[in-house]
Amino acid sequence: MAKDYDVVIIGGGTGGYVAAIRSAQLGLTTAIIEKGNLGGTCLHKGCIPSKALLRSAEVYATTKNHAADFGVNTGEVTLDFSRVQARKESIVNQLHQGVQGLMKKGKIDVYEGTGRMLGPSIFSPSPGGTISVEMNSGDENEMLIPKNVVIATGSRPRTLPGLTIDGEFVMSSDEALAMTELPKSILIVGGGVIGIEWASMLNDFGVEVTVVEYADRIIPTEDKDVSKEMQKLLAKKGITFVTSAKVLPETLETKEKEVQISAEINGETKTFVAQKMLVSVGRQANVEGIGIENTDIVVEKGFIQVSETFQTKESHIYAIGDVIGGLQLAHVASHEGITAMEHIAGKEITPIDYALVSRCIYSNPEASSVGITEQQAKEQGFDVKVGKFSFKAIGKALVYGESDGFVKIVADKATNDILGVHMIGPHVTDLISEAGLAMVLDATPWEIAHTIHPHPTLSEVMGEAALAVDGKVIHN
Question: Which residue blocks in 106-179 are alpha helix, DSSP H?
């Protein structure tokens, strides 16, 4: 027997389950369909497990290489990677149980299976059509009749044409997270955010790391100063970087205990050999197998097209998160889900301004940013003024033992508006929220500078960088 709902959400990742919670809060009868585990990629194959591994790597490297700097004698420091993985799984399981509890608290029906839109029919006159759920249990398909549908099916790792992921020698981040032992060496194809996080982590674990990037610099979407500093600091730790390199998938060879591939660099061909290869060249949307062909939904360049209210061409069908492209970030998906639900409920909404979304890289050192880069500002015709301040002059950074990096504020000379803030250094993924709030509130560098930052804290770097915008920096 078919079941009626105000909202049915296909996909239980960070976007989907947050949307379900907001839907229930708004008094809408809600169901969520998830073929894997609630929490999706972020909780099980992305944000959380990778950051758990990054933290273990940081503790290991700090203890092994820098404990003596703090007057702490540790003796021989060894790594038990099985316990590293066990800690990761424990954190994931705890958060997974929390999400399951939130579903029960919100009286949200959870269907464990694969949802497929069938469209309207004589058996389902509702404009939302029917959704068939192929249950993981093998039981008979469940039929759901929604007034509104939200597609939140997320994304999966992309690879290069001809470069097959075999899970043993050639891995995506999915397979890398499940490694039971660390390789002695690894070649990472792609120097974007995910590639740099893995490079940093594996280097801290003692793996020999080489990063091959197609662009002329790593993390090419970030400010050039941050990109340059990141490469300098990671190279100092022993990571090898090769930029302006076009990997040649047809040259891939796997032998007993190693993988080999060539790349074209400035007209010359160079061959790389390592025990493992990690392909990190972006993510592609999961648009297959959910019945899009039974709708009028438009898919362009692999992503579902939506309005600012996240409606597809069929107004009762919404889409959020990685499946619509844009900023493929967990916190973005969550807010897109909230916005979509409030629109469904008839609430007045404020469209998301993606220029105000903070972006983070959880490598060691960390990097973060909000707004546009200095180069983008100039390309857009702004006459810019820039303030930059190093962590080397911040007392708390010296106490903490990590004083590399800086904060850079880009502002408009004409209006004094902040155009972008870019950071690299200790705990900047936490510090970026002040910059994000400043941009949301349309604050000026003067207002940030006149916010009294407690001493000694890392946050003082924001105040000094803001003063530097107008040449009034104190500790420089």
Answer: 173-177
CA pair distance 210, 241, nearest whole angstrom: 6
Cα distance between residue 298 and residue 281, in whole Å: 25
Residue segments in the chain with a per-residue pLDDT below the cut of 50: 122
Which residue among the candidates 96, 335, 427, 455 is catalytic per the annotation?
455
- Beta-bridge mates of residue 271: 262
Question: Is 450 part of the annotated catalytic residue set?
Answer: no
E strand or H helix at 110, and its extent?
Answer: strand 109-119
**Per-residue confidence (pLDDT) for residue 124, from 0 to 100:** 56
- Say whether 140 sits in a helix, a strand or coil: coil
Q: What is the pTM for the complete model shown?
A: 0.95
| 3-state SS, residue 137 | coil
The token pair at 245 is 């390199």
Report the candidate in 403, 409, 401, 399 with the shortest Cα–Cα distance to residue 390: 403
Cβ contact 372:355 at 8 Å: yes
What is residue 255's predicted lDDT score, i.e. its pLDDT?
85
Q: pLDDT by residue (tens digit) across 154-197?
A: 999 999 999 999 999 999 999 999 999 999 999 999 999 999 99
